[in-house]
Write a structure and sequence with these properties.
alpha+beta; FAD/NAD(P)-binding domain
Length: 449
Amino acid sequence: MFSVLRFSTIKNLRNVRTFASSTSNHFDIIIAGGGLVGTSLACALSKNKILSERNVLLLEGAPPFKGFECGEYGNRVSALNNNTVDFFKNIGVWEKISAARFKPVKQMQVWDASSNASITFNHDNFSENVAYIIENDLVLDSVYKELESAKNVQIKNLAKIEDVDLEGLATKSVKLKGGEEFTCDLLIGADGVNSLVRKQMKVDTYTHNYNEMGLVATLELDGNACDNSVAWQRFLPTGPVALLPLNENKSSLVWSTTPEMAKKLQSLPADEFVDELNKAFVKEYPKNEFVSNALRVLDTIMNSDSQSSRQYPPKVRSVVERSRACFPLGFMHSSSYVRSGVALVGDAAHRIHPLAGQGVNLGFGDVKCLVEVLADGVYGGATLSDKLVLLKYEKDRLVHNVPLMLGIHGIQSLYSSSFSPLVLLRSLGLQITQNAPPLKNLFMKKAMG
C-alpha cells in the first residue's frame, strides 16, 4: 500500500497529453476545469464504451500537474465514501491510489461539547470501512496517469477562459484569454464555485456565507495512537473540529471556526497551536442543567448510558511545518444544473460545509450520473446537447443532492447556536439516533450513496 511513487517515473504530461494543433477547433465535449471532478469526468468519458469515440477537450487554467510523491502528507485530503471508491475502480484509478497510500476509516466518533451527546458510526463488526482518507494530489495524479492512455481526450493547460457563448443553437463556444476559440456540442462546467459557465447560464443561485473559515493542517500524533483508524469530530461552540487519520501516527485536521480565530490559530507558534488543538478536544464547556437532566432521562428510557462508551482522540504531538492553511466556508446551490448543450458538475453546481466530508463525493456522484445518462441518450439516438437527456441528469442529482445538502446545512445551523432549546433538540436527536440502529444506518446509507 505504501510503495513509493518516484516522480522520475511519471511521464511529462506536457509531452504526453497536451493539446496538439488540429485542423478543427470543434470538439464533441469540452470540460471547463481540470480539478478532481473535471479530470475524473474526462477519464470516465474515455472509459465508457459508447462515449469513448467522442472527442473531449479538457481546459485547465493551471500549469501541467507536477505529479505526486509519497513524501510528506499534503494538507488537503478527502474522505471518499464507498460509492466513490467503486467509481474509481470502474475507471481504473483505484488501483493506482491503493498502490500508493490511503487510510481506511473504520469508525467515526462525533460529540457535542455543549452537552456531551454523542454518536458513533461504523459498520457491523467493522465489515466495511466508513470512508477512505486520501490526499487530493494523489487522486489527481492517479486520474492523470489513467488519462495518458485516453485516445479521445486532449488536455490544454494554462487555458484561462475569458468568455463562453451559450447562445448557439447547435454549438457552444469557449474563448481563452490568449485569443484561441473552441466550439463544442456539449460544454460541461467543472470550474468550481465561481464557475464562469454557471454565470453565463444565467440561472438563479442561492448562496450563504457561514462567516467561518476552515483551517487545515497535517499533524503528528502521540506514540500511543495505536491503529489510528477513527475519525474524530467535536462540535465546539465556534464550529466543528475534526481529526482524519492518515496513517498510524499522522492525522489531518479540519477545524471550522470564526475568521478571527482561524487567523489567530494559523499564526500561533507551533507548540501553542498544538496546545490549543488538544484543549479543543478535551476542554469542558458550560452545560445546561436542563439539557443534562433530559439526556439522563433519555438514557433511562432507552436503557443506555451516553457516557459509558466515550472515547477520546489521540493526543497531538506536533504540527507539520508550513502545513497550516485557511479557506472560507459557504453554501451554494444552482437552481438548475443544465440547459441545452450545457451541464454543471461538482462545485460549479453546489457547495456545502465540510463537516460531513461529502462535498467532493457529491461531485464524483455527478460525474458518474452524467456519463451514464449521456451514454444512454447517445445509445438511444439522442445528441449530446439534447436538453431532455441532460434534464434526466439534473433530476437524478437534485433528488440525491438537495436532501443531503439541506441536511448538512441544517446541522451546521443547529450546532452554531447556544440557544438552550436548540441545544436540547440536537442533543436528544443525536442520542436517539445513536440508540436507534435503523435510523443510524439510514444516515450512513445516505452519506455513502
